[in-house]
What does this fold into?
Amino acid sequence: MSAAGRVVCLVVAATVALSCRHAPPQAAPPPPAAPPAEGQSKYTFLFDPANPALSLPADTRFDRPRPIDTKTLPVYPARALADRFGPHREVVRIVIDKDGKVAEVHDSPLGASDKDAYSEEFRRSVDAAVRTWTFTPGSLRKVEPGTDLDGDGKPDYVITKSWERVAVYYDVRFTFEIVEGQGVVRREP
It folds into this structure.
């Protein structure tokens, strides 16, 4: 084979070798980012055995405020959620005014809120949520016995003689937790 032929064969061999070369391995794609943590909230009302409505005279009825709209629930504070911090408990006393709106939020005498690095953020979240809640107004009614219609010796109804709206308080407990990587606020029994 001539020198020119050898050069052509070498060029062809080099071209074939280069074309058969495998592509360099590519780096594996990064794992998908973890979804952002989310939180949800629930609450429970606490019973206060010292409530003055429990010792009213026989001719007075107390009508408790009933929740109309308590859909706005506390948001798990972003910084605490990002740090996966929990559990945390907040216990507050809300004062419902004569119009059924939450007028005040205080510490509850029925339980202590936790004290930790995120206490202020948890409390702000609870305050913001409960201040949007609305209730039927609480009221006191002066009543007198009605007629005994069925002859059993007891009145079958009461007659309301006067009625007055009153401010009322409720104590509410929230517990914030991280469960399976999620920030949640659990309702306590």
In short: Confidence is low (pLDDT under 50) at residues 1-23. Residues 102 and 131 are 5 Å apart (CA to CA).
